[in-house]
Amino acid sequence: MLLCDFHIHTTYSDGSVELRRTIDLYGQAGFDAIAITDHVVNGDNPIGRLAHRFRYSVTRENFAAYMGHIREEAGRAWDKYRMLVIPGVEISKNHLTPDKSAHMLIIDVHDFIPACMSFEEIFVEAKRQNALTVACHPHYMSAASDRNTLFLWNNREKYARYIDAWEIANRDDVFNVISLKKYPYIANSDFHKPRHLYSWKTLLNCEKDTDSIKRCIRHNKGVALTLFRN
Ligand code: ZN
Ligand code: ZN
Q: Does the structure show a pLDDT above 90 at 119?
């Protein structure tokens, strides 16, 4: 099965490890497929604007450079490690209240998607790009009570049809509620620092190419979780 991690931040947003070193960390650890998913933060309120001021967001202006760099590193990762690297973003709608906040991975993204668009517009645009949509850390997290992102879970009746998979585990947290609803799931590290490599991961029983991986996750057959430890 393919050892995968589809939620990884670099210094393009608030990660501490530069893209090239991130690729080498995962390549040397034996991963088969990863997605680079730096934050695209909403700029329509003070918390969002703060993230932009500290350059913790990919923007419309540097999106092309971000994508170009990922594609270049993807070539190197394939040659050196036979590891597939898929470009993505984490659309981050940050609000003061957890009930309004939501983070979504857009995996195999092609064009920039602004985080201040409405949820419907974001999901429709992701579908137009045939990207995979994943609801991130959708329930209460152990560490960050002030940064919980509950909007998608609380509004799941309305939005579940747009979401290809939900994070049933994020780093060290497991969200049982996802399995109770029988939603398609994956597990990711939400990598920001080297120690985050050792956390929940996804195993996929499919071919090592982007289309097969997207299909496998959407159908949610041959998907397993593993706690990856040193
Ligand atoms: Zn997040
Ligand atoms: Zn994240």
A: yes
Which ligand is the nearest neighbour of the Cα of 138? 1
pTM of the model: 0.97
pLDDT bucket at 208, cuts 50 / 70 / 90: very high
Say which residue the tokens 């959407």 belong to.
218
| Interatomic CA distance for residues 196 and 171, integer angstroms | 7
Q: Domains of the chain by range and CATH?
A: 2-227 (3.20.20.140)
Distance 103 CA to ligand 1 centre (A): 5
- Report the DSSP beta bridge partners of residue 170: 173, 188
Ligand in closest contact with the CA of 196: 2
Q: Is pLDDT of 145 > 80?
A: no
User: End-to-end distance of the chain based on CA atoms, in angstroms?
Assistant: 19
Q: Is 209 helix (H, G, I), strand (E, B) or coil?
A: coil
What distance in angstroms lies between residue 91's CA and the mean position of ligand 1's atoms?
8
